[in-house]
Here is the input.
Amino acid sequence: MNNTKITGALVAVAILSTLVVSPVFAQSATGTKARQDAMEKRDEKREELVAKRDELKAEVSAKRMELVKKFAERMQKVHQAAVNRLSKLADRIDSRIAKFETNKNVNLDEARALLVTAEGKITVAQNYLNTIPGMVTTATATGTPQSAFTTIKGYFAISRDNLKGAHSALVDVISSIKVGMKIASSTATTTP
Here is the structure.
């Protein structure tokens, strides 16, 4: 019984192999042409897909670069507004110094000297901010959106540091005015 099962299985395998192999041999002349046509169509499709992918990549890159440019414009406006506020504050402090010197007969020469330093830092911040649009144009014209974005963020980090330095200088001026007028700076205390 075991031999009949093995014999039956061998016969089945032999029949299947002839059925599978026969069409391959029958297609030898016409199958080669059809196979070549199919391969050519596949290659053409692949080339079309690669071209379409490259086109989409270029579109996405252009859109991202526009977003980077818009980011730079927004940051330019924000930093310019900060410079304007600091400049206005410096003008107000200057008028207060003049008022205190006139009305209170107080010598605030140290505060005036610090104010000149603060105004110089504001000017440095403004000058650097004025150079950023040209640097942004250069950064966005060359490179990828990612590298341009990183570069532009670095420009505005430097601008932010300039603004912080100018603000700190104005704080020093106000502290000097308080010292010159002999106003003790009050410290906040908490009661338990």
